[in-house]
Design brief:
The chain is mostly helical. The chain contains two helices and no strands. The protein is rod-shaped.
């Protein structure tokens, strides 16, 4: 039983998993922020192109 407690105390596999979960969450949030920023500009650009094409016809 004492060996089990020592092994459980020294096991670091869970810490690595937590690190990867935090890193993955940060990457997802960064991706959402970038996507939101780009979508606003892309919508404006699309409207500008549409207006120019309608005025040319």
């Amino acid at each position: 039983m004492l060996n089990f407690i020592k092994n459980f105390r020294d096991d670091e596999d869970g810490a690595v998993t937590v690190d990867f979960v935090v890193l993955t969450a940060a990457i997802v949030l960064l991706g959402l922020a970038v996507g939101t920023a780009i979508s606003n500009g892309a919508g404006t650009l699309a409207n500008s192109i549409e207006n120019n094409l309608l005025n040319e016809a």
